[in-house]
């Protein structure tokens, strides 16, 4: 079924100049881009986006990391794009992420209080709907 997902090119991806490489992989796979916007995320947006992680030890560092510089929010579309982009992204931990994936090829572990792994992708239809509403209210 054609569906939409919310992708974030996190601040480390922007900082390292990897926007083009990541978007190239998304487009090469055949997914469409419905919306794309670079911005510095504000605290309310990050609190809403990461509500499920509130109270976890890495929550504070996660919000700090995600607000540390510009990120690129993207709505992508296609058959199976939610699971498909998660597959392109690879495992959360860059060391465990398979070669060939965005995180496996382009990210590594650092001595940091939170895992920095270049991209976010919605993990379900419900999450995608919720997250698109947070980042692109006009599309929600
Ligand atoms: P995402 O939401 O960013 O697509 O990543 P994910 O589903 O693979 O990972 P999730 O469990 O939702 O965690 C969200 C983000 O928080 C950071 N994280 N750090 N132990 C840690 O230091 C830790 N655990 C999670 C990562 O940046 C992860 O992508
Ligand atoms: Mg997640």
TrEMBL record:
A GO molecular function for this record? nucleoside diphosphate kinase activity
Q: What does this protein do?
A: Major role in the synthesis of nucleoside triphosphates other than ATP. The ATP gamma phosphate is transferred to the NDP beta phosphate via a ping-pong mechanism, using a phosphorylated active-site intermediate.
Tell me which InterPro entries the record gives.
NDK-like_dom, NDK-like_dom_sf, Nucleoside_diP_kinase, Nucleoside_diP_kinase_AS
Keyword Chloroplast tagged: no
Query: Does Transit peptide count among this protein's keywords?
Result: no
Q: Which reaction does it catalyse?
A: a ribonucleoside 5'-diphosphate + ATP = a ribonucleoside 5'-triphosphate + ADP; a 2'-deoxyribonucleoside 5'-diphosphate + ATP = a 2'-deoxyribonucleoside 5'-triphosphate + ADP
The protein in question is named: Nucleoside diphosphate kinase
Per the database record, which ranges form the Nucleoside diphosphate kinase-like domain?
Answer: 2-140
Under SMART domains, the record lists:
NDK
Indicate the family of this protein. Belongs to the NDK family.
Keyword list, A-Z: ATP-binding, Cytoplasm, Kinase, Magnesium, Metal-binding, Nucleotide metabolism, Nucleotide-binding, Phosphoprotein, Transferase
Give the residues annotated as active site.
Answer: 120
Q: Name its cellular compartments.
A: Cytoplasm
Top EC class of this enzyme: transferase
Which residues are ATP-binding?
10, 58, 86, 92, 103, 117
- What are the EC numbers? 2.7.4.6
- Subunit comment for this entry? Homotetramer.
Region forming the signal peptide: none
Q: Which Pfam families match?
A: NDK (PF00334)
Name the cofactor(s).
Mg(2+)
């Amino acid at each position: 079924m054609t569906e939409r997902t919310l992708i974030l090119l996190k601040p480390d991806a922007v900082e390292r100049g990897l926007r083009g490489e990541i978007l190239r992989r998304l487009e090469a796979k055949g997914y469409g881009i419905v919306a794309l916007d670079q911005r510095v995320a504000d605290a309310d947006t990050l609190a809403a986006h990461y509500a499920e992680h509130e109270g976890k030890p890495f929550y504070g560092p996660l919000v700090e990391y995600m607000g540390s510089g510009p990120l690129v929010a993207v709505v992508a579309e296609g058959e199976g794009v939610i699971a498909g982009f998660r597959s392109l992204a690879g495992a959360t931990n860059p060391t465990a992420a398979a070669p060939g994936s965005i995180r496996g090829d382009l990210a590594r572990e650092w001595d940091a209080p939170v895992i920095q792994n270049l991209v976010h992708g919605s993990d379900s239809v419900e999450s995608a709907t919720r997250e698109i509403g947070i980042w692109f209210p006009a599309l929600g």
